[in-house]
């Protein structure tokens, strides 16, 4: 019996094929596949939805204001014929749906209308007032974070593990009381104490302008920031107490790392998420709070502008200011979300590759 050929017994030789290299993605492809793409898409959709909601609110809110703008503009001595002619020239005689279509069409073409009272384009009026509101809100936001975060960290470290309970109770009571005071009352108290009482600060110069002395901004900024400082500081203190009891902080203390490295390098990054999340809500509310503060200090910003427009029943100005103030608050919230995403990528709703 003959044996089979050796080629039938041995397996055929295996050829090793090198795995194909995965195709390299372009920078745009890597961005599309990253969590940032879906994050920005969601935020863009919410921003567009907010814009359309503001369009509806800005148009309908003027319908709730009692009185007829034509009567206010024409004066008490105007005849019925003159008032009706004025209503026709202002477009107030049109059906609401036609007024709404005209308003939306003007917004999308960059025309916010013309002021009933002053005959100026609404965009020009807003442009002249925006710098005052932005300066006040931006300074108050920076002041709030610069004071609140270090203050909360210091108190959190000082009261760790139940130490100095008197400091913890005093801090909570004082910040809670100050935070509960309405902004307009706090602003009035500051004016009485420092403007008219002590007289160390110039509250409102005779002609309030962008060239006013820096000291005139102190009280409005403090009045706007003092409440958010207390709110954010309390949250930072609470989160700091929680972070300091984590295992990695015990390890850092066991390694006898310097205090600055423990608290700033280890603790601070881990409390930023909750701090920034709350700060976004607080800072967004500060944009609306600026309206009240501007009224108390007679600052010619968006706040005093919308109050004056309501009293004058100046519909186009009211609509334009509501739209701009609402979008400013939405953009501040978006900015905080982006900063939070940079500080903690887990908040983007995905995982980095």
User: CATH architecture of the domain at 129-315, please?
Assistant: Orthogonal Bundle
CATH class of the domain at 129-315 reads Mainly Alpha
Shape: flat
Overall average pLDDT: 78
Query: Uncertain segments of ≥5 residues (pLDDT<50)?
Result: 204-210
Structural class: mainly alpha
CATH-defined fold name of the domain at 129-315: MetI-like fold
- In angstroms, what separates the terminal alpha carbons? 64 Å
Residue share in helices? over 70%
Strand-residue proportion: under 5%
- What do we call the CATH homologous superfamily of the domain at 129-315? MetI-like
Order of helices and strands: HHHHHHHHHHHHHH
- Total E-strand runs: 0
Q: Using only CA atoms, what is the Rg?
A: 30 Å
> How is the main sheet built?
none
């Amino acid at each position: 019996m003959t044996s089979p050929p050796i080629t039938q017994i041995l397996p055929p030789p295996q050829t090793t094929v090198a795995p194909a290299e995965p195709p390299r993605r372009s920078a745009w492809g890597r961005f599309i596949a990253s969590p940032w793409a879906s994050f920005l898409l969601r935020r863009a959709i919410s921003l567009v939805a907010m814009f359309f909601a503001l369009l509806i609110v800005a148009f309908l809110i003027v319908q709730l204001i009692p009185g007829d703008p034509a009567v206010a503009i024409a004066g008490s001595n105007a005849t019925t014929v003159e008032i009706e002619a004025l209503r026709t020239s202002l477009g107030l005689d049109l059906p609401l749906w036609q007024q709404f279509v005209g308003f939306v069409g003007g917004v999308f073409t960059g025309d916010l209308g013309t002021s009933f009272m002053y005959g100026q384009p609404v965009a020009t009026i807003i442009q002249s007032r925006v710098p005052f509101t932005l300066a006040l809100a931006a300074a108050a936001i920076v002041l709030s974070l610069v004071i609140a975060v270090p203050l909360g960290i210091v108190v959190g470290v000082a009261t760790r593990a139940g130490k100095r309970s008197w400091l913890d109770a005093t801090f909570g009571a004082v910040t809670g009381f100050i935070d509960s005071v309405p902004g307009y009352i706090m602003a009035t108290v500051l004016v009485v104490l420092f403007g008219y009482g002590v007289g160390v600060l110039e509250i409102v110069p005779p002609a309030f302008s962008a060239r006013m002395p820096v000291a005139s901004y102190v009280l409005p900024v403090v009045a706007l920031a003092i409440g958010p400082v207390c709110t954010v500081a309390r949250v930072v203190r609470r989160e700091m107490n929680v972070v300091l009891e984590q295992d990695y902080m015990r390890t850092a203390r066991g390694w006898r790392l310097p205090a600055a490295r423990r608290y700033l390098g280890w603790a601070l990054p881990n409390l930023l998420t909750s701090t920034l999340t709350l700060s976004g809500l607080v800072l967004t509310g500060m944009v609306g709070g600026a309206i009240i503060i501007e009224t108390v200090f007679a600052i010619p910003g968006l706040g005093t502008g919308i109050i004056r427009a309501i009293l004058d029943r100046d519909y186009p100005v009211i609509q334009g200011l509501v739209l701009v103030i609402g979008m400013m608050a939405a953009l501040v919230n978006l900015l905080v979300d982006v900063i939070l995403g940079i500080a903690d990528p887990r908040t983007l709703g995905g995982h980095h590759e």
